[in-house]
Amino acid sequence: MPSTIEVSGVSHRYGRLPALRGVDLRVDPHEVVCMVGPSGCGKSTLLRLISGLETLQDGAIAIGGAVVATPGRSLPPERRSVGMMFQDFALFPHLTVAGNIGFGLRHRPRAERDRKVAELLELVALKGYGDSYPHMLSGGQQQRVALARAMARDPAVLLLDEPFSALDEQLRRSVREEVVQIIKATGIATVVVTHDPDEALEIGQRVVVMSEGLVVQDDTPLALYHNPASSFVAQLFGELNRFEAQVTDGRLDTPFGRFDVPALPHGGAIEVACRVEDVTLLPPDGINGGGHAAIPATVRRTSFMGNSTRVCLSLPAPGRDGSVEIHARVPGYVPMPPGAAVAATIAPDRLLLFPKAARA
Ligand code: ADP
Fold first, then answer.
1. What residue's CA is closest to ligand 1, atom 21?
2. How confident is the model at residue 227 (pLDDT cuts 50, 70, 90)?
3. What pLDDT does 358 receive?
4. Helix axes of 110-123 and 169-186: crossing angle, nearest 10 degrees
5. Ligand 1 close to Cβ of residue 43 (< 6 A)
6. Residue nearest to atom 24 of ligand 1 (CA)
7. Among 33, 66, 168, 243, fewest CB within 10 Å belongs to which?
């Protein structure tokens, strides 16, 4: 039966190295949660603790409301009802597809095993492939066999560690769409670990961003993209322009002009960022329909990116001589020679503001 995963206050060390620092995470049935963060931030450690492959040192882990691990008391992996799939999901080459899927059920009665294998073959759309061997299947089909194998013992929860990284770019998108559709249809609470932020946004109903053993944001993909909790989270999900500014009487001077920030304290230092795709370019005499003034800018260079053009611009530096370099990304191919005059603007609600911590 699909169950909830609850991780409370989990910390972990390897020797003196802290790998997790007070992590809380809850995943409910019918939820696919993606955990993303740079290599070494603790994602695999958390999965191994949930599955029981690693011994819990601090905190608690419950599955379906039952505590499976506290320090000093831990259920072995086979009694946790956890299905797992890893990056190198290696199928047994000498076993058929049916043999691979039913491997974990080999001690069960034959009829029960056959029934379950048939049900899983249907679930992963491989009916008729039971007698095939892994090498006869495509990469995507093999991945679905691995998923079926992970689900053979009716797990209460599913943990997938970098499940798609071994697939080539072309295959990855379609396979992950298929796999995630299958998982969503079962309603099993699932955690997918990835180091690929785009993949996290695409498949996670919720995305948990980790850095150095901490959960730095746990949100929907839309909220993460539009309201990142820090510049670290913001830059994970796309190219940014970044500059520093100071609040003066409720206003912020930026290369895009002045913005009202009544809620921010006078004199506060702010890290300002904006996504390159949020910068709008207009003709030099352009009038911004959105209400915020456009700033005269000069094109330095452009690069054609296939579905968009990346434009590097010079804007006057606010409050001093000189200029600042800003990047924009506009859809399609937009030819603009170096030196061309344009106007640049950004909607006020697309500025990302991160107050800098006051120095002691
Ligand atoms: P991620 O999955 O995000 O790449 P990991 O959970 O694998 O991160 O690792 C977190 C940190 O713990 C890293 O610094 C890693 O080097 C360290 N680490 C992971 N496993 C071990 C281990 N078995 N022994 C010692 N250090 C480990």
1. 14
2. very high
3. 53
4. 120
5. yes
6. 14
7. 168
DSSP symbol at 113? H
φ and ψ at 194, to 5 degrees? Answer: -150, 155
Render pLDDT for 308-354 as a digit per residue (tens, 0 to 9).
999 999 999 887 889 999 999 999 999 899 999 999 999 999 999 99
> How far, in Å, from the CA of 58 to the mean position of ligand 1?
16
Looking from the CA of residue 44, the nearest atom of ligand 1 is 2
Residue 191 in tokens:
């955690």
**Ligand 1 atom closest to 210 (CA):** 3
| Interacting residues of 133 by C-beta distance below 8 A, sequence separation 6+ | 93, 94, 95, 96, 97
Q: Where exactly are the structural domains of the chain?
A: 5-235, 239-358
Average pLDDT in the chain: 91
Which is the closest atom of ligand 1 to the Cα of 48? 6
CB 229 within 8 A of CB 39: no
Q: How far apart are CA 17 and CA 13, in angstroms?
A: 5
Q: Measure the CA–CA gap between 65 and 340, rounded to whole angstroms.
A: 63
Whether the pLDDT of residue 359 is over 50: the answer is: no
* Ligand 1 neighbourhood includes 170 CB (under 6 angstroms): no
Rounded CA-CA distance 298/284 in Å is: 9
For 43, the token pair is 């994602």
CATH number of 5-235: 3.40.50.300
CA of 49 to the centre of ligand 1 (A): 12
| 268-315 confidence digits (pLDDT tens) | 889 999 999 999 999 887 665 556 788 999 999 999 999 999 999 999
Q: 239-358, what's its fold? A: OB fold (Dihydrolipoamide Acetyltransferase, E2P) (2.40.50)
- For a ligand 1 pocket test, name from 36, 41, 45, 196 the mutation site with the most ligand atoms within 8 angstroms of its C-beta: 45
Q: CB under 8 Å to 332, separation ≥6 — which residues? A: 307, 308, 309
- Sequence-ordered alpha helix ranges (H) in the chain: 43-51, 97-101, 110-123, 139-150, 169-186, 197-203, 221-226, 231-236
